[in-house]
């Protein structure tokens, strides 16, 4: 069974951040795949839950890596650090979680 590491980011953008600015940040986030070789895949989406448990988070970003070492290299990569310095000021709140999925037989 293939093992991977998932890096999940839940984000809520500040009210004053325009939709165009959000789309530019998302595009820049996705573009990290072209600069950081450790990224295996990247996906994102907006909250569509009907349970009303999102605590205001509106966007979800998922980056997948092959190993914990690859995830660690990503976190310290200059392209990621630069992007983070652009993304974080646009966010009202953010949660980041890394995990190794467990698949039950």
Automatic annotation (TrEMBL):
**Where is coiled-coil annotated?**
none
SMART domains annotated for this entry? Answer: Dabb (SM00886)
Question: Which intervals hold domain Stress-response A/B barrel?
Answer: 5-99
Q: Which PROSITE patterns match?
A: S_R_A_B_BARREL
Q: Which GO terms describe its biological process?
A: pollen tube adhesion
| InterPro entries, per database record | Dabb, Dimeric_a/b-barrel, HS1/DABB1-like
Q: How does it assemble?
A: Homodimer.
Q: What is this protein called?
A: STRESS-RESPONSE A/B BARREL DOMAIN-CONTAINING PROTEIN HS1
Instruction: Give the organism, scientific name.
Output: Salix viminalis (Common osier)
């Amino acid at each position: 069974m293939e093992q991977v590491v998932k890096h999940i980011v839940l984000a809520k953008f500040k009210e004053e951040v325009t939709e165009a600015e959000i789309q530019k940040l998302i595009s820049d986030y996705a573009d990290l795949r072209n600069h950081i070789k450790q990224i295996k895949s990247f996906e994102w989406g907006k909250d569509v839950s009907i349970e009303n448990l999102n605590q205001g988070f509106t966007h979800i970003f998922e980056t997948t890596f092959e190993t914990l070492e690859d995830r660690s290299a990503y976190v310290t990569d200059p392209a990621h650090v630069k992007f983070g310095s652009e993304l974080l000021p646009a966010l009202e709140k953010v949660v980041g979680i890394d995990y190794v999925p467990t698949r039950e037989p």
